[in-house]
Amino acid sequence: MTGWFDWVRGTRPVRAKGKSTQTVATFSERETRGRQSSFSLPEDSSVWEWGAGRFIGLANGTPFSMLPVYRYLRDAFPDISDAVWTWKRLCQTGYDIEILRASSDYAKVRAERLLRELDSRVNSGDRGMDGLLDVFYTSLFIYGAAAIEIVLSQSRETIHDVVPIDVWTVRFRREGGVLQPYQLHNGEEIRLPRERFIYVGLDRDGTNPYGRSMLRSIPFIAKIQQRLIEDMAKATHNAGWSKLHVRYTPEEKQRGESIEAYEQRVRGNFDQLRDKLNGLETDQNLVTYDNVSVSLLRGDQHAQIFYDNHKAIEEQIITGMHLMPILLGRNYGTTETYGTAQFEIINRQVETVNRSVKRILERLYNFELALMWGEAEARVNMRTNRTVDVLREAQARAREIANTVQLRDEGFLNHDAAAKLLGIG
Length: 425
Fold this sequence. Notes:
Layout: H1 2-9, E1 14-15, E2 22-23, H2 27-33, H3 45-50, H4 66-76, H5 78-91, E3 95-100, H6 105-121, H7 128-143, E4 145-152, E5 159-165, E6 170-175, E7 178-185, E8 188-191, E9 197-201, H8 219-239, E10 243-248, H9 259-278, E11 292-297, H10 303-320, H11 336-370, E12 377-382, H12 390-409, H13 415-421
Antiparallel strand pairs: 1-2, 3-12, 4-5, 4-9, 6-7, 7-8, 10-11
Helix pairs in contact: 4-5, 5-7, 8-10
């Protein structure tokens, strides 16, 4: 069986005719005879080489049916919904467009106008580029991937629209050594144009083309959390809350009073007391004779035990969403240094994601400018989140600039190298 696999994959050694020795091709011979590609094989090589053209699956055998489950978790669990919302707001820092290498002043003005019109035209006009990025970030932090398609005008001279694609319908297949995207719709396989299809996968696993959702580690913990809350509700309902217990002791029977009259008098006093209690306001006090006693019955509540258990589950969800407690409305009393370090790590992830967004925006804008009259190039500068200590950041930046200027004045750097070192060149 092993030899048959080697024969199918083309790695079985060749035997010379009439000889018992094996002839092995040298590295240079294999390189010249084989196709121009890497010698290493992707994880799904058994599928695309002799697997009847099946689609590549998600990493670690995750079924595609889990993708709609992630959306359900976002809608049904407050902590997960808040985490996705927070990641979106952290990444939506805004950006600035810079027109470079314009052939003339008129070409620069025209390029700026074309890009403004493109921003308002994409996403089918629904909030334009801001709306498209909102959908993009939402998909990225729920499914671990986001996809868009560039739609050209009928004359194919400009971008007519840029539309988001539901990533749970996207599949990949290796054809001719490249990844070919498809979309599944009503049981049909729609071949998507690779040159106009943009797919971003977050935390990709090895050679697998799909992104990996942060919510992949959440379902089990979320199930425990909801069961804990459900049990708490049942226990609270069973134990109840604190109540007033009013005990009425009937008066003694008067001399010469019949049994019927005594029972009627006691029943009347009891009914009168009950009516008074039913109409008692919250800020009113109860005044009675000695034969009426009032005590407080406390429900058997274990709020602290529930809080500790629920907090432990919350921490697992916060960790799975790669956030810090304060960003989800929790305060567990961490030090300022620890909180600052956490926020810096989160901002690095934000910058990583926004670098991908920057490349996508530059691709869209430069594609639009490539067909205009005149020449111009667009560069996108993504804004960043402000740090916790703005003053300390400003002082560090001022010192960095001073050191770079000193290096330039001493002749160790020229002006262009100094600007590049400061990130402004």
